[in-house]
Amino acid sequence: MTCRIIAALGVLGFLLWGGVPPARAGRPEMARAYALYSSGHYKVAAEKLIPLAWRGDARAQGLLGFLYEYGKGVPQNYVAAAAWYSCAAEQGEATAQYLLGLLYDKGHGVPRDVVLSQKWLILATARTSTRERDAFTGIRSAVAAKMSAAQLALAQRLALEWAPSAPPPFGTTCWPGASAAGSVGSMVGACSAFPGASGGMPSERCAR
Predict the structure, then answer these.
(1) pTM for the whole structure
(2) Which of 59, 106, 107, 162 has the most CB atoms within 10 Å of its CB?
């Protein structure tokens, strides 16, 4: 992927999260968190998002992952970002699937893996709205161009076999692929007993 494309990825992610109207933000707590995020009050938004994320709200998990990836209102932490994106992606949240695919492509917070990157980008492209589909398709194609035919076939098979999961019980591990995720699985497992600390923010060990 060229530097120009990579530089555009964060901008696209910001537009995807920032462009969600209150009507699509879900319950009132989620709408308030989005309003705080959109107005630049990232720390307070994170405090609102964390309990929702632990309760299994996929959009809260995805947006919280975005805050961790870019260090907005919380310390920048790619492992935490990947963990929350994964929780949301497994439930079928298209933007989180897209952003998780980018992390796998770049090796941020997860081992670099173009097959898993392509799997999530395929799913995100299929599930997103028409407005974002062209952008998602372009990134998916850029990753595919770096893959062998065998790798691409495997990614397509994994995407075809995937099915969304239900939100996990409150306070339990939401990452079903912990054994294959390395540090991501360890992070979520370590945090599974900590639905919140320090005023609703994760404990320090959950952010490492």
Answers:
(1) 0.75
(2) 59
